[in-house]
Amino acid sequence: MTHDAGPSAGSVLAELRALQAGDLPTHGGRTLAYVYDSGLAEADSLGREALAMFASSNGLDPTAFPSLQRMENDLVALAGSWLDAPPGFAGVVSSGGTESILLAVLAAREEAPDVADPSMVLPSSAHAAFLKAAAYLGVRAVVVDVDPHTLRADPAAVADAVDDSTVLVVASAPSYAHGVLDPVAEVATVAAARGIRCHVDACIGGWVLPHLDDVPPWTFAVPGVTSISVDLHKYAYTPKGVSLLLHRDAALRRGHLFASADWPGYTMLNSTLQSTKSGGPLAAAWAVTRHIGAEGYARLAHAARAATLELADAAGATDGLRVVAAPDSTLLALATDGSCDVFTIADEMLARGWFVQPQMAFGALPPTLHLTLSAATAPSVPEFVSALREAVAAARTAGPVAVDPGLGGMLAGLDPTALDDAAFAGLLAAAGLAGGDGGIALPARMAPVNALLDACPPRLREALLVGVLDRLSRPTGTAAGPAPSET
Fold first, then answer.
1. What span, in angstroms and rounded, lies between the C-alpha atoms of 461 and 333?
2. Alpha-carbon span 240 to 234, nearest angstrom
3. Backbone angles phi, psi at 458, to 5 degrees
4. Does residue 412 or residue 100 have the better pLDDT?
5. Which of 15, 206, 269, 334 is in Cβ range 3.0-4.6 Å of 202 for a Cys bridge?
6. Is the pTM of this model over 0.90?
7. For residue 83, how many C-alpha atoms fall within 13 Å in the half-sphere facing its CB?
């Protein structure tokens, strides 16, 4: 039987390649956020092949696809061996760091059903996924300031914030925004003294830190650490869509296991938020981690770490730039001295073929540039530094980008809770961002837009960006498929 309702497979693939041409590159080490590149072509090829091989397998039922359960157990065991997990530990594979964090918060909440208004204590540097968990799961986020000099969690502030409603405290290894490792031992001691869970968010550092020397304690070797999240699609360099959540013992995991027989179909049984889930990312992670191996990951970790330190030294010696905090792992945050702005530097870097991620001001901290160093970036650090210095020089010549006073005044009068579609459309028009069909026309250079967002209070910035996402996520009338009259 032939299929002739649409274009050929070759034509569709050509369309996909054309669409992909506008994306950031995922390989080559020139995208310093969002993606992670080992630089190992054979590992990448293996991951893609395993992903395709198991794409149609369904992790919903481990008895139907026992290979997936075997691979999940193998990955959890491997991570446990690197994270000093004790006998009796348990874990699950999730779709990413956010899901792992959601599950950790859910398990903590479910263990304390008698707490009417459960809360969790977070350093202000904790990943926003915890705030998402708070919003989704009804666990109140109590956010405490970090040390203003080191940007690490302040154990005394955490201790002061803990009360009878606290079901979880959090530490980062390292924090995403600034790349520093929280004092996990001290934070975990606070939690243990009150009989409260302590989660270590090692989503970004969990596959790097075990291979580095002189790292302060942060694993299950620390008494009081009850769970750790580790992403494999970061520094395990596997295809996207796979993370791990490990618990000190299996009983701590029960709060996010779910079963329901109260309907006429199969008895639903899940260990994560997902029910149906492709076996592809799991199989790809299993294959890539086996292929690279412990010695391979050690080499990759040391390469990325050395690149981070080299880049930090070069950035600190560049007029107009400073390193916000000495990096503890493979993440780096840079700020300017006021002679230019990070938003213009980001635009200038993109024009030179490098993506760096601007971060908005937060409290007393100025806007920063976030850099995630992968192993594949290491050989190109001199080239990156040359581009960075050119970008900073161009930004200093241009001077800090200014927010239009009229537009700034309009924003100052906006109530984020009352920003309806009509008001948002008017704001887009005033900013010169209105596109056809009610959409958005983003400029090639984002510095003016980012500066405008940076000037907004956080709640207003959130409302504006939700509006942007809403407009970007609307069909434009060019859907990829035949119109009804053509079928």
1. 21
2. 8
3. -55, -45
4. 100
5. 206
6. yes
7. 35
> Closest Cα partner for 380 from 302, 297, 307, 305?
307
DSSP per-residue codes, 347-385: HHHHHTT-B-EEE--BTTBPPEEEEE--GGGGGGHHHHH
H or E segment to which residue 440 belongs: none
Could you report the per-residue pLDDT of 201-258, keeping only the tens digit for each? 999 999 999 999 999 999 999 999 999 999 999 999 999 999 999 999 999 999 999 9
Q: Which residue has the higher pLDDT, 202 or 431?
A: 202
Question: Which phi and psi (to 5°) does residue 170 adopt?
Answer: -130, 145
**CB-CB contact of 446 with 346 (8 Å):** yes
Extract the tokens encoding 237: 């360099």
The pLDDT score that the predictor gives to residue 483 is 37
* Buried b or exposed e, range 36-68, using 16+ CB within 10 angstroms: bbbbbeebbebbeebbeebeebebbeeeebeeb
Domains observed in the chain: 49-288 (3.40.640.10), 294-398 (3.90.1150.10), 405-472 (no CATH)
Q: How many CB atoms lie within 10 A of CB 160?
A: 12
